[in-house]
Amino acid sequence: MDVAGLAPIEQTALLTEYARALDSAHAHPMLADPLASATVAQIDCDFTSLGATASVVALVALRATMLDERIRAFIAAHSDAVVVDLGSGFNSALYRVDPPATVDWYSVDLPAVIALRDALLPEHASARSVAASVLESTWLELIPATRPTLVFADGLFAFLDESAVMSVMRDVTGHFASGVLAFNDYGPVSKLNQLMGRLSTSRNANSPHTQWKFAGFKDAHTPELWNPALQLIEEASGMHRPEARLFPAGLRVAARLSHRVPAIARKARIVQYRF
Ligand SMILES: C[S@@+](CC[C@H](N)C(=O)[O-])C[C@H]1O[C@@H](n2cnc3c(N)ncnc32)[C@H](O)[C@@H]1O
To answer: 66-274 architecture in CATH?
Structure first.
């Protein structure tokens, strides 16, 4: 499958899928998603140009593991749940979680990505695709509003600016009657951090760092100030997980330090908000 026509923002979906494929081939995988390898095998692309370092692989696999756990818990409590994957890319969370057919699972991404996703991923009774930008509220019109809803974003918000993130959060809480918003987060990401990310990956022509827009936030309560309908229910760091023992050496040091340095713990966190 040819992905040369994807815009740079759409190409960011290649790195995360490739990272999960590398994890699945690892002697000690964290996520162990065989569908990621099968998907990558169908894509015609120089994946080595993406900058999938051992640390990126570990952190991408771990945050997917953590989000999967939260989605499974939500579905266990709500067998009629709607799950919405914002900026889904080629992520096979649907197949890993494998919900019952009573659950509707909406994958939302830009039209070119959804076209490829639909061609690459197998059928599933719960799968629904929404080919639309989350910056235009029309994506919501296609998704039922009254059932318990878990909206998650794995790797999307970094590529939206703050006003867009706030607008997506407003759209979510305005449309869905009740549920949870869960996403991965890096804490505050200064302009200097963004520049360092770009420079350190400049040899990787398709590094997603060139697309980074979100300055992030330090206090996980900040989205509650942006949107009073959101209530923080969890802030969990991947640095504190037992899987940190499988991190590459440098990242293992960071994980040990993160118990005393909250700024490091924030760099790999999952946050959840009830609405
Ligand atoms: C880093 S990728 C993550 C993809 C996927 N969640 C994963 O874990 O592999 C970011 C995704 O956000 C999508 N995206 C970026 N801006 C978007 C927008 N305005 N509306 C919908 N999707 C968007 C990109 O096309 C891409 O698939």
So the answer is: 3-Layer(aba) Sandwich (3.40)
Considering only CA atoms, give the Rg of the chain: 17
Q: Which residues contact 137 (CB under 8 A, 6 or more apart)?
A: 171, 175
Ligand 1 atom closest to the Cα of residue 164 is: 19
> Contact, 217 vs 243, CB < 8 A?
no
- Protein residues whose CB sits closer than 6 Å to any atom of ligand 1: 9-10, 12-13, 16-17, 87-91, 108-110, 113, 133-135, 154-156, 159, 208
Q: Which of 24, 159, 171, 184 is the pocket-test mutation for ligand 1 (most atoms within 8 Å of CB)?
A: 159
**Hey, whose CA ends up nearest to atom 27 of ligand 1?**
89
Q: From the CA of 60, give the closest atom in ligand 1.
A: 8
How far apart are the CA of 261 and the centre of ligand 1, in A? 30
pLDDT per position in the chain (275 positions), as tens?
A: 889 899 999 999 999 999 999 999 999 999 999 999 999 999 999 998 888 999 999 999 999 999 999 999 999 999 999 999 999 999 999 999 999 999 999 999 999 999 999 999 999 999 999 999 999 999 999 899 999 999 999 999 999 999 999 999 999 999 999 999 999 999 998 776 766 666 666 566 566 777 888 999 999 999 999 999 999 999 999 999 999 999 999 999 999 999 999 999 999 999 999 99
The domain spans of the chain are 66-274
How far apart are the C-alpha atoms of 185 and 177, rounded to whole Å? 24
Please give the helix or strand (H or E) that residue 20 lies within, else none.
helix 8-25
Looking at the CA of residue 154, tell me the nearest atom of ligand 1: 6
Between CA 208 and CA 49 the distance in angstroms is 11
Residue nearest to atom 20 of ligand 1 (CA): 133
